[in-house]
Amino acid sequence: MKRLIARLENVGEVITDPVRLRTYECDGLTYHRATPGVVVLPESAEQIAAIVRLCNEYGTPFVARGSGTGLSGGALPRSDGVLIVTSRMRRVLEIDLDNRRAVVEPGVTNLAITEAVREQGFYYAPDPSSQQICSIGGNVAENSGGAHCLKYGFTVNHILACEIVTPDGDIVMLDRMDAGYDLLGAFIGSEGTLGIATKITVRLSRTPESVITVLAAYRDIAEGGRAVSAIIAAGIVPAAIEMMDALAIEAAEAAVACRYPENAGAVLIVELDGPAPEVDLQFAQLREICADAFELRVAADAAERAAIWKGRKSAFAAVGRISPAYIVQDGVVPRTSLPQVLAGIDRLSAEHGIRVANVFHAGDGNLHPLVLFDDAEPGAGERAETVSGAILDLCIEHGGSITGEHGVGVDKARYMPKMFSDTDLDTMQLVRCAFDPKGLANPGKVFPTPRLCGEVPGVRKGPHPLVEAGKAEQF
Amino acid sequence: MFGAVSVRDAGPDDDVAGVRPRWVVLPESVEEISEVLRVCTERGLAVVPVGGGTKLHWARRPDRCDVLLDLCCMNQVLEHAAGDLVVRVEAGVTMDALAAVLAGKGQELALDTPLEGATVGGTLATALAGPRSLRYGTARDLLIGVTVVLADGTVARSGGKVVKNVAGYDLGKLLTGSYGTLGVIAEATFRLHPLPSKRFWASGRVPAAREDRDDTGSTIWLPGDLDRLLHTLVTSHAEPSAIELDWPSGASEMTVSALFEGGAAEGRARAVQDLGLTDVADAPPATWARLPGDEVLIEARAPLSRVQALAVAVLGARDDAGVPAATRMWLGDHLVARIALPPDTGPAAVAAFVTTLRAGFDDDEGRIVLLAAPHEAARRVERWGRVGALQLMRRVKERFDPGGLLAPGRLPGGV
Amino acid sequence: MDPHLINDCVHCGFCLPSCPTYALWGEEMDSPRGRIHLMSQHVEGTPITPAMAGHFDACLGCMACVTACPSGVRYDKLIEQTRATVEREHERDPQDRAVRGLVFSLFPYPRRLRLLRWPMRLTGALQGFLERVHPSLGAMAALAPHVEVRQRMPRFVRARGPRRAVVGMLLGCVQREFFPQVNAATARVLSLEGCDVVIPPSQGCCGALSVHSGRSDQARRLAKRTIRVFERAGVSVIVVNAAGCGSSMKEYADLLEGTPWAARARALRVVDLAEWLAELGPAAQRNAVPLTVAYHDACHLAHAQGIRRQPRDLLRDIPGLVLKEIPESDLCCGSAGTYNIFQPQAARDLGDRKARAVSGLDADLLVSANPGCTMQIAAAMRRRGSAIRVAHTAEVLDASLRGVSP
């Protein structure tokens, strides 16, 4: 490591002081911690490529990190590795409105892109709750979603091209316009295991002509859920449909005084956007559908809209106000299974004596249960872990996913075998082997154990190992 | 040879871009596909999967082809969860059949089908989308889960049946545009959209370019106002779902058509009248979402603002090669143009056309691909143009298909 | 450093974009989240290393992170406690110690500052020399304002028109010595709006600079003196026109907690001038001030006291005045009390960044509620060669109420 560090110092700024290094020991998920062997703060793609090549030379693993806000430990450092932090690469390189795109460095924050083009009537659509700080490089790594992805899709749907540094240190351009495999699509969401994005071309969207945000308060989650079903059945695709339960509302109220209706068992936030005449038609439908809400608020301007969203967007961090510790989950279920799954979560909560606040993207079945506990109370942490894991089991049982937008990272790698068979995981691993035969890029993330890549690097000749092992018979 | 799976000898209709396979094998389940591929790997037989066969003559001819794996029998819609706006289908289902099933519940897979008879699997493997990609993206944006059979018979899934899901690598994305070279797509799951209550098209004609003479008196073509018009249209608050430019061979004008979907579609279609799109109708123009031709077909991709530049380059290539060219363009994340030359165009003229077009257009950001052409013509030019990540593509191919048995050589760089 | 306050941080990172040093350097250790992590390392037993102290010293104390935090972390309290710990436990290098000693024996003492007024006229010429001796001395020289003729404030200013309230007024150390015209304007505005203004002549420093630099003993001493002076003056409301002073005085009760002084502190109500005038409502006639004004949020007003709307409303209500928002208005200008003296380079970079944002607006006048900010931004604008006139909110209001041009 010492020799590597000495050579890294020639490439860019390096942090080796142990006290400083420790501040990088975790990202937004504090449950897992590891002090990085060394931190580098590159300022260009060439520097990142040089760092990665050095890592290859010394066989040292490396992890990329943007703003460190991830919630699955995707940027958890390696104590025997290099942490490459892109927070100094935050230039907006080009704004090209004629082609509805911008080229930015990976450390630029999600919101900064929108701010750079807002006055011209454009914005960058994906809006994770942490958009004011999360970096676009991190968004690409995690394929981040956000409240508005119901209508507009995820990061992968809004990235036109990426310049990446491959795990062996080459600078390569992945472009949606290229013929052949959609390597760009495979790269986005690979959580830093296939390389590091160094230059990102994002699509800019036109700010919609009209936006109507409605807050509907219901006595309970079930009533709210029926409204969501009715909206979908009416053929409306709102920009967002969000729901919060009583406990989540309480937390948000404590944190940001969002003034949601009192005594609401659930609030539903529905945002319609698009051409004004279209939004007006949908709004008329929506009013009818939400007629049984006990309170219906319609945001009249941007300030009122921001007030409605404020409670929702700060909900995660806000539960800190009502509980000393908590775990954020990120399960997904088919939307129609929401009632059963929420009932199941209630049961788990009662069984284990652990409170669960529910915040979710109701339109696409993406749940964010916040499992609350007091870390000072002996055994509470373990019980919370049990509940949290059981919630994911519940999601898988209903044909869902263990993560809708936070990523697998280090946190959910152990759940991957519950969702995918060994063969599925081995096949995914083939992609990994193609990009990163030495397994140096963010090892230990996404996949439960190092698989095929841990074996002899190089081209696999002959049949799939699983076929040899006789496992293929299972089909 | 392939157990219980139906096999027949290949005939002239089964040629893959001019290569005659030995057998046509017709599996009826994922297990049968796996069995067939396992046997092929054991015996070193090269396999090309096929759905409706509408694009079998596209791309480079395979280095060899022993088995044509015909998925026509895999034609079940497995699960339509209307409340979840999700459908899971076998790869051999035709896009039209799927549309009919979904329409029964007021929903659709928002992918156009430029070639009639195309299957879900073929649409994914060739990454062919239509004009509505402006609003909905292409196949890769709507695909949420996939079951793939690898060369050695391994069956693997990725994604799932929920729209929002970031667990694991997205193999589905990798497979879109793979032309059967990585694995056989057996099943696919898509996110759906509600069928819009109304659809209206606004159309109008615009000059393709300005004709002028240079000092020597020869014709030259100069840019007109096309890009500005299209930029206004694309970013219009009326929010068109699709924009098509149809430019028949020999015509000096293009027809620009924009589709509007939704309850207020008619009013929105009329809102762009002042851009010159004065014909408003509730039925599509005759050419809508179809390819301009199919036997000699060139594809151009470029950033949106290059429409006018492409039009000028096409005129130059047309004059230079002396062949008429029919062009149709769709605007999405970028410009996708397809230029059809007459089926009887000679190899030299095809080569000349492509070469001139590239010289006039294929710079840092333009890509010209010869999608379909008789082998004799295709031999004379580099088919794919520039591809940024060829090395990575090769490495992926080597991992997935180490024996090089799946559609070998169909893609750039011999992949 | 209170471990409970540290544990409130959930490491979400929402504070990062609000932090001026993170904006400059993009390093975790120089963000609020990183500094809280360093605090927790210290609580867990790591001694204060020079590196650690450096990151705490680099904090401007602008409190923008407190506004940004969704979990309600009291970073203001934490950094105050931390600075005190650093002063107690950390041995600074001799040069650093000397400069800090000089500053803290000068600024909180108006009479000593007064002695500086003449030498400061010289410092312009000496700036290059001072810069070479120590960058902090150079920075002090560069910031030095053009000193107005000193005005002695009366002990009492009677309300014009019907009396609506009786208030005490804090003069502030830097304000009274270097910006006497601001105090004069403040007193006139209060009087024109119907307030009897009591100005105890024996008042000294409120202790803000000491609090913000971890000198808590000095801070408590000065706080007690200030409380005593205003108690004797017989007022229950103290109007403050310097944001840094106001925010510290609002925290007196916490500073003196556990002593009888806390209750005495609570009995006095401290209000910012804009806050007070907004609450009181306008009584005097506003005359037109046809200027384009860029309003700068002083951190200690916007973040520490949560006062953003009131000064803007007051300015907007002036006929003919066009108010412009400065981009990145949440980001500190780099002045931050004594910061521009101890961290000259960072302060300069932030000043330049702010000056860039301001000069894009094409404003006639830059208005803020803090003398430090005004000096800092004015200096940065001069460096850019786009000098701008600066004023305190009070001066603009005074001009409008009196019908003269500011």
Automatic annotation (TrEMBL), chain A:
Cofactor(s) this protein cannot do without: FAD
Presence of keyword Flavoprotein: yes
MF term (GO), any: (S)-2-hydroxy-acid oxidase activity
Boundaries of every FAD-binding PCMH-type domain copy: 32-207
InterPro entries given in the database record: FAD-bd_oxidored_4_C, FAD-bd_PCMH, FAD-bd_PCMH-like_sf, FAD-bd_PCMH_sub2, FAD-linked_Oxase-like_C, FAD-linked_OxidoTrans_Type4, Oxid_FAD_bind_N, Vanillyl_alc_oxidase_C-sub2
Keywords, ordered alphabetically: FAD, Flavoprotein, Oxidoreductase
EC number from the UniProt entry: 1.1.3.15
Pfam family, one: FAD_binding_4
Major enzyme class: oxidoreductase
Protein name per Swiss-Prot or TrEMBL: Glycolate oxidase
Source species of the chain: Nonomuraea soli
From TrEMBL, chain C:
One Pfam short name: CCG
Metal-binding is among the record's keywords: yes
Cofactor(s) essential for the protein: [4Fe-4S] cluster
EC number of this enzyme: 1.1.99.14
Top EC class of this enzyme: oxidoreductase
MF GO annotations: 4 iron, 4 sulfur cluster binding; glycolate dehydrogenase activity; metal ion binding
Keyword presence, Nucleotide-binding: no
Full protein name: Glycolate oxidase iron-sulfur subunit
Organism: Nonomuraea soli
